[in-house]
Amino acid sequence: MIEHTGGGLGTAATEGTHGMKANNYFLKAGYVSLTAVETVEAEPGDYWTPWRIEMASIYQWHVYEAARDVARGMPERPHVLDVGCGYPIKLHRLLAPASASASVTVVDQPTLAGRIAADFPELRFVPVDLERPDADLGARFGLVICSDVLEHLLDPDPCVAFIKRHLAPGGVAVFSTPERDILRGRDCLRSPKPEHVREWNREEFVRYIESHGFRTLRSLLMPQARFTPEQLAACREAPPDSRDCFACHTLIAEPTAP
């Protein structure tokens, strides 16, 4: 993993914040967001096919490892919330044991309710429209995870506000998203993946999250898929311009104000 610690990447966020925000969520000039959402599920199984369920145990694995490490470093086992949980196999394997004495809540589209109830009965599932997350979950959480979700939303602002609203005092949020410059090149002005409304580079994403009243604790680049220690070591030794294996940006942040 490649890491920056503290708020160094986002220190410029307070300059020109309103203008940058108006210009498409802190994305660079000329970037065009898509206008349709491809990940809304009309009926159970439309999106979460057997293939996607299998991939759920592979992609963003290291994000959940990082979240587990955050949980382990807290004075008490935190209540955990996973926003846009999808098929929550990584949460089940990595975070539920780390929060064995605390509650674990997951939110996502209503169509996931039956599958989660059948496969993960220990998790509390709450159906939430992440484009309009007006629900109050009736609890506050020491750790909130939002892994590769925001790039799927037409307007991610309400989702980020929902996350901040549900953090307990002293709580920490773990966000992740694909790193556009690494995946697509610096000249990319539109996501080639129809499921992604927009994609940020690392600096843009830090500024975007910090504009919502968060302070960066750690900014990490890690593999999108699950790597062995040997594969990670090989990536670290690769030339900087060929490190496309480190294409998942994970941001660990805390709120700066209520």
Automatic annotation (TrEMBL):
Its EC number is 2.1.1.-. It comes from Azospirillum brasilense. Pfam families: Methyltransf_23. SUPFAM superfamilies: S-adenosyl-L-methionine-dependent methyltransferases. This is Class I SAM-dependent methyltransferase. One of its GO terms (molecular function) is methyltransferase activity. GO terms for biological process: methylation. InterPro entries: SAM-dependent_MTases_sf (IPR029063). The keyword Transmembrane does not apply.
